[in-house]
Amino acid sequence: MAWDFQTEPEFEAKLEWMRGFVREEIIPLETLADVWRTPEGRQRFLRITAPLKEQVKQQGLWAAHLPPDMGGLGFGQVKLGLMHEILGQCGYAPSIFGNNAPDSGNAELLAVGGTPEQRDRWMQPLLDGKIRSCFSMTEPGAGADPTLLTTSAVRDGEEWVINGHKWFSSNASIADILIVMVKTGDHETPYRNYSMIVVPTNTPGVNILRDVPTMGEPDHKTGEPGGHAEILYENVRVPFENVVGGEAGIGQGFALAQKRLGPGRIHHAMRWLGQSQRAFDLLCERALTRYTHGSILAEKQMVQDWIAESYAEMQAARLLTLQAAWKMDQLHAAGKHYSDARIEIGVIKFWGAKVLYNVIDRAIQIHGSLGYTTDLPLESMYRAARAARIYDGPDEVHKVTVARQVLKRYRPSEPSIDHVPTRRAAALEKFADALDGLSLSH
Ligand SMILES: Cc1cc2nc3c(=O)[nH]c(=O)nc-3n(C[C@H](O)[C@H](O)[C@H](O)COP(=O)(O)OP(=O)(O)OC[C@H]3O[C@@H](n4cnc5c(N)ncnc54)[C@H](O)[C@@H]3O)c2cc1C
């Protein structure tokens, strides 16, 4: 029976290399974030990180998210999850490992749902880091309920004509291609009305109005990496074959989105743990350092409570996430759909986001005024963490999914299945022979 919580030694050695590499080579880039934002700074960043990417390739860790026959390394979700835990410590790390959102998810989508031509044309350049991509689904009027999306694609001969209004299309303003969720049908089952179409960003009619400044990046300027674009699609014409999956992909937009989002949620949850661990390290270090009211903070019971709660929450999130990843690997190996892991995936999405938020919040609190300043990364981590409870589906939607699935295991029962008088009557009957002679009241 396999019930093993250990990482195999060869892979652990890779992880150990990653830990040192991220700490020594990538995290130092963080404090120069303002430098990298300008177009010239972006070029400098690419020059500095090019040799780092080479090192990652030499280690055999580049673009590890796809199966080998699709150009990746076939690591599976558990190994990828362990990698993302390390990469999550620094926002720059995933791109240096060829594994950054949304490109990794989009490459995965094209791998599982694209035609061979689409894989050659867009997936391979994405894996090689030669092009950037965006997943453009949310609209100002529809997000958590995607059946309300209105952006449409109408077939006109050998072309699609796309019209609509999207926002929060992350990375669109620096992307080469946009994967756009569009309404293509009028089926009575709303989920079958949507398809995904690949739109090169420079297609006439793609009007990027702005990158929307956010709590995470209030000073963000349109065109800088990491923006969330508002886009008008105005009579955008693309070839018919750009629909993901070709003819067979029409009406399959949501089914394909699930394939993309499942692994993505594992990666998110593990990256959040990387962030949580960074905040937790600061929390513990401060507890041992700061003296106030007669002792160091580590000796105050309330602070011990934060440390114990944070540790327990993080450990629970880690085990939940790795178990979800393991289940997905089992399903994949059996040729089954990830939807059979929807409880596990839903749980880690809301639980992981909550843990991230809690741990950073406590780390800020223990630092007092220092925690509120930009002298520490905690304030920016906190602002970024708030979004985790919203993107890739808000907490509430995942809780609805989890509760619905869990409730399928139950039936209404009157009286309760554990109603003692009912069970006692049944037990008296069951053991009547043995109880013969005993006087028992009901
Ligand atoms: C940083 C960031 C990056 C993003 N990147 C992308 C991207 O790259 N591409 C993309 O397409 N989208 C992206 N999004 C959008 C994101 O996916 C949506 O914000 C999300 O799906 C929620 O949709 P909404 O914002 O329209 O909220 P709404 O649908 O308006 O929901 C608002 C709130 O209503 C509540 N709610 C909703 N449904 C239920 C329910 N059934 N029960 C109880 N309460 C409910 C929840 O609290 C929810 O937060 C991003 C968002 C953020 C914050």
Outline the structure in words.
Residues 11-130 form the Acyl-CoA dehydrogenase/oxidase N-terminal domain. Keywords: FAD, Flavoprotein, Oxidoreductase. Its cofactor is FAD. With 442 residues, the protein is α+β, with helices and mostly antiparallel strands. The protein has three domains: 9-127, Acyl-CoA dehydrogenase/oxidase, N-terminal domain (Butyryl-Coa Dehydrogenase, subunit A, domain 1, Orthogonal Bundle); 133-252, Butyryl-CoA Dehydrogenase, subunit A, domain 2 (Beta Barrel); 254-407, Butyryl-CoA Dehydrogenase, subunit A, domain 3 (Up-down Bundle). It has helices at residues 9-26, 33-37, 39-58, 76-87, 93-96, 103-113, 116-127, 253-289, 301-333, 342-367, 369-372, 378-388, 395-407, 420-430, 432-435, and strands at residues 133-136, 152-156, 159-170, 177-183, 194-200, 206-211, 228-239, 291-292, 295-296. The strands form three sheets. It has a four-stranded antiparallel beta sheet with strand order 2-3-7-6, with no helix packed on it. A three-stranded mixed beta sheet has the order 1-4-5, with helices on one face. α4 (76-87) packs antiparallel against α9 (301-333) and α6 (103-113) packs antiparallel against α7. The longest helix has 37 residues, at 253-289. It is globular and about 90 Å long. The protein starts with 8 loop residues before the first helix and ends in a 7-residue tail after the last helix. The protein binds flavin-adenine dinucleotide. Flavin-adenine dinucleotide (FAD) binds at residues 102, 135-138, 143-145, 168-170, 228, 387, 390-394, 396-397, 400.
